[in-house]
Amino acid sequence: MPHASRSIRVLLITVLSLTCAATALSADLKSPDMVQMGLRILAGVYGDMDRKLAADQYDRLPHENQEFQEGSGALRDAVANEPGRFKAQVKSALDDALAAANHIADVSKSHDKAQVQAALHALADSLTSLNALFPEALRAEPGTVAPGRPSGGRPPH
Asked: Is residue 91 part of a domain?
């Protein structure tokens, strides 16, 4: 058992070290305002999708997906000058969110509320993972940004 205990300690130390490194890296973002705006845009479009689903407007979800895809450019631009490792982490998490948004558009054609709701939950999970890469003050978790108002209450420019 001492070997298992030692392995667990090493694993915990490794995880803590990586977490601290990621936190330190993300705390020194070159464009924190742009990051926050990018995250708010994505969370706002998520809110629009949720509202469309609640109103059974399945035919509008592919359009919302298109807005999500286009809105992702703001976050890509925001991390463009960040270190490669961090930028790769963000790109991977963003790619997951983009795939989840595409899936919503695909399943919306079925008009099956349960399927679309499950896809929307998957998008929320991927956005939560994406947000976790950034300092808490910059995050815009799904469901926290009013639909259609990703820029803090002002209409987007």
From this structure: yes
